[in-house]
Amino acid sequence: MLTPRPAWGLRILALGLILLLLHPQPSASGPRPNFLLLLADDLGIGDLGCYGNKTLRTPNIDRLAQEGVRLSQHLAAASVCTPSRAAFLTGRYPVRSGMASSTGDRVLQATGVSGGLPANETTFAKILKERGYATGIIGKWHLGLNCASSQDHCHHPLHHGFDSFYGTPLSLMGDCTRFELSEKRAGLERALGLCAGAAAAAAIAMAVGRLMGLAHGTWAPVILCVASAGVLGSLGRAMGPLVQLADCVLMRGQEIVEQPLDLARAAARVLREAEGFLRSHKTGPFLLLVSFLHVHTPLVTTPPFLGRSAHGLYGDNVEELDWMVGRILSRLEQEGLSERTLVYFASDNGGWLEARVGSQQYGGWNGGFRGGKGMGGWEGGIRVPGILRWPGVLPPGHVVPEPTSLMDVFPTVVKLAGGALPQDRVIDGRDLMPLLLGAEPHGGHEFLMHYCETHVHAVRWHQRERGTTWKVHFTTPEFETPGAGACYGRAVCDCTGSQATECSMISSHTLASQIPEEVIMERTKVFTNQAVNQMLL
Length: 537
Hints:
Elements: H1 6-22, E1 34-40, H2 59-66, E2 69-71, E3 74-75, H3 81-90, H4 94-97, H5 124-130, E4 134-140, E5 164-168, H6 185-211, H7 220-247, E6 250-252, E7 255-258, H8 266-280, E8 286-291, H9 312-334, E9 341-347, E10 356-357, E11 360-361, H10 379-382, E12 383-384, E13 386-389, E14 398-400, E15 404-405, H11 409-416, H12 433-436, E16 447-452, E17 455-463, E18 468-477, E19 500-508, H13 517-536
Parallel strand pairs: 1-8, 1-9, 2-14, 3-15, 4-5, 4-8
Antiparallel strand pairs: 2-13, 3-12, 5-6, 6-7, 9-13, 10-11, 16-17, 17-18, 18-19
Helix pairs in contact: 6-7, 8-9
InterPro entries: Alkaline_phosphatase_core_sf, Sulfatase, Sulfatase_CS, Sulfatase_N
Family: Belongs to the sulfatase family.
Pfam family, one: Sulfatase
């Protein structure tokens, strides 16, 4: 056997070191990664091929799961948009930041409302910006805009750590077009129509009474009622355009660039902005949050995707979302950024089961899980897709069955960026990297609270030593019809009141172990009482 001389050995070693320097392999302890966070809106966990769907085509998201880690028990901190997104950005339960409602208005209802993510909350974008990252958000915000005036923009993304914002400060809504399902327009039109009808009926009654000699006096009340009916009727007809003008707004930074928003061009604009951001910041480091308008109603879908799926307009919208994800990932690869970028894909909450008109379903499918959007304790409202890809670092095709949360993104991103977690507040999220890399067999959550508004509807207990996850339900909605798993006839299920029932139910989301129910109930109740008392401090 020929043995290389020492000089040749040194040359080979030097050549290897040069090649390693020219082509460094990424690692969790190496250079700081870029972050591309992709957040869908109202996407059901059962809508994706990588989560078991066989009838919708989602090849790009499925490929992301094949090349990365798929979280099979990934949970939103709330079952509706605004509180879930607040928890995602801050790593904290929304009750801690005041972003969980106690009045029934569970999400921000209009651009002009004064509520929003408080200025003293710390987002991961704020910490990364301080660490030298370029930070951007494209798409939906839905965490408030103004405080005392229409121009102070105190809740604007630029005041929460983002360098750039392109999108809508509220949300995509049925009010933004003449859609069958409307959040505000239909109710306002109906109320004004009833008032106009009442005024017209009063005018007719008074006029008939005058003509028949049953009433005396001037015609002024009749004229006033006729005028009122006309004004109210006109307001009803104008309400749709007025709501659209007020709430369907496109902004770049703090400037309104389109009012109302042209929905037909929204998808193309989101793509253009995302691709432009990746081109402009390819030297890094960067954090980009693409907060898709898909697949929230009114399901605005471009002509190439209409009629393509087997599930109507909703399915078409899901397949267009997947195409958009593919376009963004392709741009990431074209710019040579794939190896240096941690990609995360999720949804803010489960699919909206009540989004239907007649037999036409406009909401998503939550797989085999009961419930949907708006249901704080039922799995269909809070279990969402969760996929992370970082080539060369995270093992491809790996599935993590442990309970994880959207709140975990906060500590994970901050630590990878070399930042420090805030020490002046409780952070409920847990760093995902030890779990993703296999360094730890179990996640950081022994308990997870499941809220509906400010009310604890359920608590999840991960019994690590047995590999079992239990969930104790304290309140459940009254489904319509009973057993349907949804509240048809209402926008979403109520959290409290006559349409919600107190209960003590236990369910298991893994293979059941032999443990008395009273032990499970007592353990979760003790934790719940301690946690609620802590949050009230």
